[in-house]
Specification:
Blueprint: E1 4-13, E2 16-26, E3 31-35, H1 42-49, E4 56-61, E5 64-65, H2 71-77, E6 78-81, H3 93-98, H4 113-125, H5 141-154, E7 159-163, H6 171-188, E8 191-195, H7 199-205, E9 208-213, E10 216-221, H8 223-226, H9 229-236, E11 240-244, E12 250-254
Parallel strand pairs: 3-8, 3-9, 6-7, 7-8
Antiparallel strand pairs: 1-2, 1-4, 4-5, 9-10, 11-12
């Protein structure tokens, strides 16, 4: 049974279809990357999976339709990290990570000893415990991203949804974050679904890719099956060269356009 299975999922925004009949699946402990050009519906699809947008079709977690789950039950199974998470400037890192325990608290109850222990472990795991007393406003981009992941990990989810987790990071911090996510999924059995703009990065880390084109699935499968020059040209209107690294994973390189002769009349 798949950890996550989508069957003909559709989403409308302000009456306009944005996601249309998307079907895909990811096995437990797997990593699925959703790719596609701007406006293809990637973030909208992730928000629907997280239960933040109404949808047609079926989103099933371990065979259970998510619409049969209460919001609190869903939040214990799924952690969603948006592209631009809200980070209260005056909140400390420790307080922020502890918010990940909210789905486990009663309506009038505060975090208990177990909640604090889980949050502390998540902070240690993401290496943010050492600056737990600092305000979020003082953190660098890489530190903020680790704090956001620590909060998500404190939820003890089975499914981790990451919307463009590296969009605001330099290449070094991108590698650190994605390596950490990969390590966490192997160590803790997390299933990961991400949206990613960088095609080479998607092919390096994800087990399977889904390429969205105007809200529909244009291709899906292993990276070498999806990241072809022909498909990228068709969907992105881009000139690229696709080669393989020493592990057989595709490397996508943009190609410069034809040179123009400045002296031509």
């Amino acid at each position: 049974m798949s950890a996550l299975a989508l069957d003909r999922v559709g989403v409308d925004l302000d009456g306009t279809p944005v996601v249309l009949d998307v079907s895909c699946a990811v096995e437990s402990g797997g990593w699925l990357a959703v790719i596609g050009p701007n406006g293809a519906g990637k973030s909208t699809l992730l928000r629907a999976v997280a239960g933040l947008l109404p949808h047609r079709g079926t989103v099933a977690l371990e065979g259970v339709d998510t619409r049969s789950l209460r919001a609190r039950e869903l939040a214990r199974l799924v952690a969603f990290v948006p592209q631009n998470p809200v980070l209260p400037a005056d909140m400390t890192v420790a307080e922020y990570v502890l918010l990940g325990r909210t789905p486990y608290l009663g309506y009038l109850g505060g975090p208990g000893r177990h909640d604090r222990l889980v949050a502390d472990r998540a902070a240690d795991r993401l290496d943010v415990a050492r600056f737990g007393g600092r305000r979020l406003a003082t953190l660098s981009g890489g530190e903020r991203q680790r704090a956001v992941l620590a909060r998500a990990l404190a939820q003890e989810p089975r499914l981790l949804l990451l919307d463009e987790p590296t969009s605001a990071l330099d290449i070094g911090h991108q590698q650190q974050v994605l390596d950490l996510v990969d390590e966490l999924r192997h160590a803790q059995g997390l299933t990961v679904v991400t949206t990613l703009h960088d095609l080479t990065t998607a092919g390096q880390y994800a087990d399977r890719l889904v390429l969205l084109d105007a809200g529909r699935v244009g291709a899906s499968g292993a990276a070498p099956e999806v990241l072809t020059a022909a498909l990228i040209s068709q969907v992105y209107s881009a000139r690229v060269q696709v080669t393989s690294d020493d592990r057989g994973r595709p490397v996508v390189t943009p190609l410069r356009g034809p040179e123009h002769n400045a002296g031509a009349s």
